Backbone:
């Protein structure tokens, strides 16, 4: 990935984490829909980028968070459960910043 792409992906993950953390407060329903889309698309992008990355790879984290925040086939949880999931998703997205520098890709 180009340096500009890496910087953009860092910014997108920080924004998605911010939305996830902010979703722990009370907002209109539309805010949660937008949050689902932002987190879902960010995780999809992250999964795509980390598919061929050798271990350690955040691929599993992106897949799990992406499934939980999927706006098309929604999972319904209680407000308290979503509160915890929002915090975990924000921490996971910020934690994925530790995997920023990708080693050279390996061919499969």
Residues:
């Amino acid at each position: 990935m180009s340096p500009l792409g890496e910087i953009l992906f860092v910014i997108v993950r920080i924004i998605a984490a911010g939305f996830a953390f902010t979703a722990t407060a009370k907002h209109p329903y539309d805010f949660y829909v937008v949050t689902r889309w932002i987190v879902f698309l960010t995780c999809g992008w992250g999964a795509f980028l980390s598919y061929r990355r050798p271990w350690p790879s955040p691929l599993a984290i992106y897949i799990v968070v992406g499934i939980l925040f999927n706006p098309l086939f929604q999972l319904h949880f209680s407000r308290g459960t979503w509160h915890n999931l929002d915090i975990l998703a924000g921490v996971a997205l910020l934690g994925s910043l530790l995997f920023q520098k990708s080693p050279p890709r390996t061919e499969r």
